[in-house]
Design a protein that fits this description.
Layout: H1 12-25, H2 31-37, E1 45-49, H3 55-64, E2 69-74, H4 77-86, E3 91-94, E4 107-113, H5 122-132, E5 133-144, H6 153-164, H7 167-173, H8 181-190, E6 194-207, H9 210-219, H10 223-226, H11 229-242, E7 253-265
Parallel strand pairs: 1-2, 1-4, 2-3, 4-5
Antiparallel strand pairs: 5-7, 6-7
Bound molecules: S-adenosylmethionine (SAM).
């Protein structure tokens, strides 16, 4: 689904594929929800942290027009290159969520979608988002929900770990490690933010086929280098049965996916 903390610099083709395949199939659906929950509107200055190819920044840019502005920050140059190609008019910057290259109090809203789970120091990232948000402004974060709330991913991971061994578990579950709303709320409150929205958000995960689903889940993690050919084949074969309830007649996969959404305000004064 994305790079892991072990390898942030993707080749440009991977970032282009992310934009053409994964953004429409998965990431685009959450951006309007996150922007609406955080109250993004005309004239605001909005930050998109770990922006990837920029779907949240682009969605926000349409909402803040004509007088607002949007900045997108990401660690990955290839993601930023695609973001710049798609929307050259927006401000894209290379930077770490845990050390934002931005001034204090400079945004009305700071957002981050489907990324906080990849940042090793989440408190630092939330505190950086709070720092660059003006007093009274909003910080909005959306992450994948709990693994056991994901009806396709939970049995898929269980099956893959059965074949690949327990060490595969942390690699396949890293996407879901922020999936605890109570903990996320506590983290935000620990950096001085006051939660105003804390809810799960239903969505859909789509893949063109069971094979594509397996390729994405296995090959976007270092697991792919640790699996024997035979084990990978077993996982691929059994995935058809595990994902059968979510597989349509044309072979495409469509499964419910739950995200966690938090919006927290920076207190005034
Ligand atoms: C799954 S993508 C989500 C991208 C985008 N927010 C979206 O919704 O399409 C995760 C992004 O987080 C970025 N990322 C991971 N760790 C980061 C960090 N510490 N600082 C900035 N960006 C980071 C990755 O480069 C990647 O673009």
């Amino acid at each position: 689904m994305t790079s892991t903390s072990e390898s942030f610099q993707l080749p440009t083709e991977a970032a282009e594929f992310y934009e053409s395949a994964f953004v429409p199939a998965f990431f685009a659906q959450w951006a309007p929800v996150l922007c609406a929950a955080a109250g993004v509107g005309p004239g605001q200055h909005v930050l998109d942290v770990a922006c990837g190819t920029g779907i949240v920044a682009r969605t926000a840019a349409d909402l803040v027009a004509p007088d607002g502005s949007v900045v997108g920050v990401d660690l990955n140059e290839a993601m930023l290159a695609v973001a710049r190609r798609v929307r050259p008019d927006l401000d894209w910057r290379r930077g770490d969520a845990a050390d934002l290259p931005l001034d204090d109090d400079s945004f009305d809203v700071a957002l981050s979608q489907m990324a906080l789970m990849f940042v090793p120091d989440r408190i630092r990232a939330l505190s950086e988002m709070a720092r660059v948000t003006r007093p009274g402004g909003a910080v909005g974060v959306l992450v994948p929900g709990r693994l056991d709330a994901q009806p396709a991913f939970a049995p898929f991971v269980e099956m893959a770990v059965r074949h690949a061994g327990p060490s595969a578990s942390s690699l396949l579950t890293s996407y879901f490690t922020c999936g605890d709303l109570e903990e996320l709320t506590e983290l935000a409150e620990s950096v001085g933010l006051a939660a105003t929205v804390s809810r799960t958000e239903p969505g859909t995960y789509r893949a063109p086929s069971v094979d594509a689903f397996v390729t994405t889940e296995v090959e976007s993690t270092p697991l792919v280098d640790r699996l024997s050919e035979a084990t990978y084949r077993q996982i691929r074969d059994e995935a058809h049965a595990v994902l059968a309830p979510f597989t349509a007649a044309d072979g495409s996969v469509e499964a419910p996916f739950e995200a966690d959404l938090l919006v927290a305000r920076r207190p005034r004064g």
